[in-house]
Structures are given as structure tokens and as C-alpha cells.
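Worked example (supplementary).
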Amino acid sequence: MEAFINAPAAAAPHAGEYLLASTPDDPSVVLGTPIFTTEQRNEGFWAAPPIPPLWKPGTRLRLAGPLGQGFSLPGGIQRLGLAALGETTARLRPVIDQFAASQTGMTLFTDLPLPQIPSSLEAYPLASLVEALDWPDFMVMDVPSERLPELRGLLHLPDRADLPCPAQVLVTMPMPCAGLARCGACAIPSRRGWKLVCEDGPVFDLRQLKW
Amino acid sequence: MPKHDLSLHPPLMNAAGTLGFAPDLHSAVDWSRLGAFITNPVSLAPRTPARGQRFTVFPGGYLLHTGYPNPGLSHVIRHYASHWKRSPIPVVVHLFTRSAEELSEMVQRLEALDGVTGLEIGVTSEADADSVEALVQAASGELPVVMRLPMEGAAELAGIAIHSGATAISLAPPRGELPSLSGNLNQGRLYGPAIFPLALRMTHELSQQSIPIIAAGGVTTRQDVEAMLAAGAMAVQLDSALWRDAGYNFLA
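After joint prediction of all chains, the assembly is encoded as:
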């Protein structure tokens, strides 16, 4: 389930960035919730699932951010591959929308149920990505941190081999301090030491990560 | 006796590990809301993040096991000493080590800096009376020393720490275990409002023994802060309440 959040247009995070949302009227909630945009509107934005079950229509939220590093896609992409391995495809939606009206070909690989998607987007099961790896000239992925180690196996890539094309990956995992403390709870290994998903990410160049 | 006092006005501070290594002067935080800034834990040598599952939720709180990653004292001094000097509020550097010799070396390096107002020394849950006494003596010098004792052992160790020369006691989160996703047991520090009754009881118990106590653990609301002060705390530390809304409720 997505949620519509009334907020000034400037508050909406860019693709891959997040806001920390808390409920000032319910202090029993222990930590804030990172939320990602799926679609921006004049009067607010749609937030990607998962949405806390305690949030109801009319729930007042306090929003901090935007936080983190989002997608930064180069110009000239001809064939964009997308892959969603987490619990939703919604966090990739702003990227899809960015290219929907362009000449860029787009293919989404996922085993998740698909919401309404633009006609310019083809969709295939995740397993099909193995045979299609040579097709994209850029990949955008949404991957929970615990599934990063299985990515090479899933794509039938040898150890330490990279994807044939550049890729940016949105890594999801709990971020309890949301960058306030650099507490280390969301640290992941990269080729240049440890990186924090909350602050250095959540979007990384896949080639910079040890995966 | 330390050359400097540990004066905490207002009697509110962040707990070690909750706001980084120095006050971020570009943030929206109103630093005058805090009587002191406690740095992230600093060890002599660099430490990397803990392996495995680091964060597990339970009703009323969560278990955290980060390994207190930090770049080591030399790096921290190089990058943050100038920030400490410019800080609008007193800076207390949190150090942790099991070795009194290491601690002594760290303290000497910090005493030479202008911006450090005090020290907080993290004590592990395995520490006994002898090791606490040795750590206090190693840390004692020009700066006030707060000994951060494990909540489980604070009643036993607080008196020893104060008699050995510590200025005050603060409370570290209690440790616990929870099943991980893989079925193993995850160990770590416990945070959240579920901890508050335990922390309040320990604060009350220590204050009745005339121990200068900086309360911490599960403080979520301003009412919690007031309850801790009413129980005899000289100040209160905030931990995950700051993370909940990027510090807005207490610091904006």
C-alpha cells in the first residue's frame, strides 16, 4: 500500500533520496520511518511502501530531509534495465517516470506484482535478467542489503565480475540513526572501506560496493 | 581534583553515539537546548562495524549491535578538535577501552586540547570493581570524568567509581539477546521506552546513595526527563529519542 503525503512540493525527495517521517502525536513509536517518493504532485507526493500500519488518513507527520544520496543517472542512456529484488517496485517509479516520455527503452525485471506501468516499459521475471544482461547500457536496481551477496549467483556472474554495464543500486536496510550519528548500523563494505547506507547511500554505484 | 567543573545547564545531553563526533553547526539543532555534547565512542585504534545483524526490533524498543565503529583517536582529534573548540556547548569526549594504560595515553592527548570539557569513560558489562577503579585512576587528571557504567552492574560499581575519583556516573544501555533472522541469538544494547522503568529505578537507587548520577535509558518524552530529574538525576541523556525525529522534539 502506498500513502499520499500532503507536503510542500519542495519537501518531496528526489528518486532514491528519503525523508525521515515521525508521528509527533504518537511518541510510543520508537524510531522514525524512512520514506521514498513514488510520484510527485503539486499538493504532495505518493510514498512508497512499506507504510507503517499505524498511519491512518489524517495522521500528522513530521518530515526531516531529504536525506541521503539518490539516483544520479548520466545522459544518453538508450536502454535502461531496472531490477527490483525487495518488497516493492515503487522506489524505482520516479526513475521510470523520468524516462517514460523519452526514446529510452526500459525493461523491468522483478518477481513482484506490478502496479500500473507505462506502456513504454516492458516487464519480465527476475530470472530473465540473466539472458538479458547484454541488453541494457545502464542498470538501476532496488536491492535489500541481505540479498546483495546472492546477486552474482542470481545473475550467473563469476566471483568479482561486474555487470556488463554501469549500474546504480538503491540498497535498503534498517537505518536507525538516519545519518544523525553515523552509528554504523547500516554499514556495508565497499571497495574503499565501509559506507553508510543512510548517508553515503542509499544509492550507490554498484561497482563501488563489495557484493 | 580536576581543574575544570562539569556544569550542565540545562541538565540535558545526548548519549554517546547518538549525534556523531562533534556538534553539526549547519544543522537545524538549537544547541543551547543541551548542557553538553557527548561524542560518539572513541577507541585508541580504529574499529570497523560489527558483522552480522546489527538491528533487531522488539515491542517497545530495539536491540543494536554496531561495534562502536570509529576511526580511532588520532583521526578523531585531527578531524574534530577544531570543531570542539568552536562548539557553542561543552564537549565531553567518550572513550572506551579495557586497558588502563591505553586510557591513560588517550586522556593525556585530550587534556592537551582546548575544546574538551570532560571525559566519559565507557565500561564494559564484564568490568569488575578492580577494573573500574583502575580505569578511573587512569582517566583522572585535569578533566572531570564521568564513568558510564552498565545499567546491570551500576548499583555495585557506582560507589567504587566515585570513591576512586570519578565526578559522576552515567548509565549505559542494558544488554540483551534476541533471535536473529537466521535463528541465532543476537546480542546488543537495548534502546527504547521499554527500558525507561529500569533506568528510572536505577537512577533513584543511586541518587539515594548520594551518587552524582546522569540518567539515561528509554527517555522518550519531556515527562520522562522530568521524572529522571525528580528521581535525583543531576542531568539526563537522550538516545534514540533524538533519532526518532532527527532531534526535532528536544533540540529544535
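Two points are worth noting when inspecting this output. The CA atoms of residues 40 and 46 of chain A lie 6 Å apart. The first strand of chain A starts at residue 3 and ends at 6.
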